[in-house]
Amino acid sequence: MTDYVNRFRPSQAEIDRRYTRVRNAMDKCGLDALVVSGSEYTGFEGAVRYMCGFHILHRYAYVVIPADGDPVCVFPREATWVGDHTATFIEQREFPAHCGEWMAGFLKGRGVKRLGIYGLEYIMNVRDYRALAAEDFEIIDFDQQFDYARAQKSEEELASVRHSMEINKEGVLAVIRAYQAGRTEAELMGEAERVFAARGCARNTMDMVQMGPNGSLRPQMVFPSQRPLQDSDGILYGLEIAGEGGHWVEFSRPIMPQGMDAVTREMMTAYQEFHELAREHLKAGNHVEEVARTCMKPIFDRGYLSGHVCGHSIGMTMIELPRIGEGHDFIMPENMVCSMHPHFMNRERTHSLYFQETYRVGRNGGEPLSGVPIRVYQGGESEF
Known about the structure:
Elements: H1 12-28, E1 33-39, H2 46-52, E2 60-66, E3 72-74, E4 92-94, H3 99-109, E5 114-118, H4 126-133, E6 138-141, H5 143-149, H6 155-178, H7 185-198, E7 205-212, E8 234-242, E9 248-250, H8 262-281, H9 288-295, H10 297-301, E10 305-308, E11 311-313, E12 320-323, E13 337-340, E14 343-345, E15 352-353, E16 357-361, E17 366-368
Parallel strand pairs: 1-5, 3-4, 5-6
Antiparallel strand pairs: 1-2, 2-3, 7-8, 8-9, 10-14, 11-12, 11-13, 13-16, 14-15, 16-17
Helix pairs in contact: 3-4, 6-7
C-alpha cells in the first residue's frame, strides 16, 4: 500500500519558522519550558498540530518545548493506536499512562522553574494540569503570547487557508443549491457535510443553524432538527471547516426564499456596510480595537445590540487571539487571517444576523478570501 503524502505537510523551513517565533515569545517571558495543549474539542486540536504535525483523532495530546533542547510529543498511552503518529515531525514521542505526571517529572529533571502553558483557559486536561500544579513550577498562562506569535501566516499556511476556503464554499453552495421546501434542517446540513467529508475535512467541521419566521433570523444558534423547511423561513447555516492542511476558515451566507422582512433588510444594509469597512481597515499596521470600533459603527449607530465578538484571528486553532475587539492590544501584521462575523440583534431580540467571512490582512486593506458578495440567496442557485 503506497503511503499518501499530505501536500500540506510543512517544510523544514516552515517548521523552523514556527519554532523560532514561539521560542522568541518564550524568551521574552523568561520561560524555561512551554507545554502546548490540544484536545478533541472541535477546533482546539490545532496548536499541537501546528507544533508537531499530529492530527488528534480522539482524546488529547501535548508538545513540551524546553527553552533549550529538542521538543517532545506526549500522547496518552490508551491512545497509542488512535491517530497516525507517523505524521509527527518531532522525533521524541512518549506514551505515558498519565501525561501530567510524566511531564512533571520530565520538567523537574530539567530544572524548570517558569513554565508556560498554552491551553490553560480552555483546552488542557484537568488531570494533567493538577499534576503540574502540584509541583513548584511558576505556571504562566501563555495563550495570548503563543497565539500572537503565530498570528502572521506564512505563504505555506496561506495556501492551506485558501484550500480550506474552497472546500467551505463548496459546502455552502451545496446547501444553497439543494434547498427545497419540505426538506428538513438536518437533511440540508447533510449536503454540506457530504462535501466536507469527501474533501478530507475529517472531524474538523463546526456546523450550526439560525432559523426564523417570515424572512428573519432569531438570535439563537442551534443544532439542525428534523423540522421541514418552509419558503417563508429565514435560514442560515453557519459553516466552519479545516481542510487537510489543518487551517480553519469560516464562510456562510443566508437563505431567504421569499425575501427578507423589513427589519432584516435594514440589518443586511448594516452588515454590508460592516464588510465594506472591514475591507478598508483590515490593513497591516492597524490596531485591532480601532478596527472593531470602526467596523461596528454602522451596527451600533442603528441601535442594535452585539451578541458576539465581531471577529478574531483564526488559524490551525479555530479561535485564536487576538479577538477583533476591546481589550486586545495588538497591531495586525500583514498576512494575519481573521474571521469576521458580527452577531447583532434588535433590542426586542426578535431579529438577528450572523454570518461569516474570512479575511487576509493586506498592506492596503483586507482581502475577503471567499470572493463572494455579502448578499442573501433564495435557494436553488447553482453558483454564487
